[in-house]
Write a structure and sequence with these properties.
- By secondary structure, the protein is mostly helical.
- The chain is built from 21 helices and 4 strands.
- The protein is about 65% helix and about 5% strand.
- A hairpin with a 6-residue loop joins strand 2 and strand 3.
- The radius of gyration is 26 Å and the shape is globular.
- About 5% of the residues have low confidence.
């Protein structure tokens, strides 16, 4: 254990590992976990693609919903039946029958106007901007750009070590507020050029994806403001708050059917977080590592006073003396990513093990994000599907804590991965009129992948030597983000 870690643990033992002031800071930091949930999952609703079909030419008040028997006959005349195998709609989404003059013969042509179902959504970005048919890839691109920003976690890690946890978090929090206000304006203001509007929207989505990496910094602050024995619980609680953020999204989109107004509320929430976050202190552990001991001691004193403990660092100069350059860490050396890769390639056993784990990370990430952000494309009520999806994720994480301690890692993990595979293969053989069964199997898969995704972190840490453990996790997380980036394009494969 290094001198910094040793001194910090000694201080927490004296002042208390978790008390009222730490709880106050923890709540403020924990709310940061809402940010990526609000921004990412809200797109599943305001960017959802409602059932749609071509608009019937010459029928001014045409709607997706059938108005009368005559309307039904007109629809059947002009709109062919869907051949896509979709569980959601019986109509062809992109083609319409064009009848030749003075003839009953018709030919199939592409349409450029659509009508959208109002069953679940009053309006969405997709229906307002007609991001369907040949423009459908634009919707996937907006998601891909957002998830490409997830590589910004590397930037957040560098900045938090260099500038400090608080400054980095505050930078990302302010950026989140400003960028999401900008996104709200792009959605609400009418542009003379729709292409310019879409370009600005895509750029903002990318930058917001980078800013959403505030979650990683929030976890670090949370575990460094509490004592050593409370750190695992602190990290887990931040994850639970992220899941609660999913339920906040569900509440907002359900109560506010107009997506522009709804996103205005999200931008307001993010702005509120930016206004209060300045009261959060710097990580005392980071301050001590940077030899800014007096600043760290002021924070420790606040914690001690809150916990009704004595912090006598001035009276005990030996125990709490400033860390000198000559202090020698007693912990094992930790290697950089490049050094870690050299070690992995040198050992055949470590290389094979690391390769298997690496592709398991990719599979878990691809499936987790592919399911989580596409629940609106499943058969059934999208609000109910999303709520159940978030609930089973929470249950899976809680269950994993108990199961992994009792039955180990390998067998439960293998069972969950096999469950995902069986569910997905089963979907191929389900008739088109049984869409709800597909939804059920998808939610079972969401439980399994939430369990396995949580487990792969533990397996990765335990399967690598201590000296390359942190770097191995960083490599796996970086590689797995390929799955995150390509997951929004699953729907394009269906189309």
């Amino acid at each position: 254990m290094s001198q910094v870690s040793k001194k910090t643990e000694e201080i927490f033992q004296q002042i208390g590992e978790f008390g009222p002031y730490q709880l106050f800071i923890f709540i403020l930091v924990g709310i940061l976990a809402f940010e990526p949930a609000l921004v990412a999952y809200s797109f599943s609703f305001y960017g959802a693609t409602p059932n749609h079909r071509c608009k019937i030419p010459g029928y001014e008040n045409d709607t997706y919903e059938i108005q009368s028997e005559y309307h039904r006959q007109i629809i059947e005349k002009y709109i062919p039946k869907s051949k896509s195998g979709s569980f959601k709609t019986e109509y062809d989404n992109c083609n319409i029958n064009e009848f030749h003059q003075n003839s009953s013969n018709s030919s199939l042509i592409k349409c450029d106007q659509w009508v959208y179902s109002k069953k679940y959504f009053r309006n969405t970005l997709t229906s307002d901007w007609n991001l369907v048919c040949k423009s459908a890839p634009k919707r996937s691109l907006f998601s891909t750009l957002y998830f490409s920003g997830s590589y910004g976690v590397l930037l957040s890690g560098i900045l938090s070590d260099k500038l400090g946890r608080k400054k980095t978090a505050y930078l990302f929090v302010i950026s989140n507020a400003i960028l999401n206000i900008g996104l709200f304006l792009v959605m609400t203001i009418d542009f003379y050029n729709q292409n310019l509007r879409e370009i600005l929207f895509g750029i903002l989505r990318l930058l917001i994806g980078i800013a959403a990496n505030v979650y990683a910094t929030a976890v670090v602050i949370a575990i460094e403001i509490v004592g050593p024995r409370k750190r695992v619980a602190a990290a887990n609680t931040i994850y639970y708050l992220y899941i609660i953020g999913e339920f906040v999204v569900l509440l907002l989109v359900y109560l506010i059917p107009d997506y522009k107004t709804m996103y205005g509320y999200i931008a307001a929430i993010l702005t509120f977080i930016a206004l209060y976050f300045w009261v959060v202190p710097e990580s005392p552990r980071w301050l001590m590592a940077k030899k800014r001991n007096q600043e760290a001691y002021r924070i420790f004193r606040k914690i001690a006073e809150s916990n009704k403990k004595n912090f006598n660092f001035l009276d005990d100069s030996d125990q709490f003396s400033p860390i000198q350059d000559s202090d020698v860490p007693t912990e094992e050396k930790h290697y950089t990513i490049m050094q870690t890769l050299k070690i992995i390639f040198k050992s055949k056993k470590v290389f094979v093990r690391s390769t298997v784990i690496l592709f398991n990370w990719l599979a878990n990430t691809f499936v987790y994000y592919g399911i989580s952000y596409n629940t609106s494309d499943l058969a059934g009520d999208p609000y109910l599907n999303f709520g159940i999806s978030a609930f089973v994720e929470l249950v899976a994480i809680l269950a994993s804590h108990y199961v992994l301690e009792r039955y180990g890692r390998k067998i439960p993990y293998s069972i969950m991965m096999a469950t995902i595979g069986v569910c997905f293969i089963s979907v191929l053989f389900i008739p088109k009129n049984m869409g709800l069964l597909v939804t059920g199997l998808t939610l079972v898969s969401k439980f399994a992948v939430s369990f396995s995704y949580n487990t792969i972190y533990i397996i990765t840490a335990e399967c690598h030597p201590t000296v390359i453990r942190n770097s191995s996790l960083a490599i796996c997380q970086t590689f797995s983000r390929i799955g995150t980036v390509i997951s929004p394009n699953i729907q394009l494969l269906v189309n």
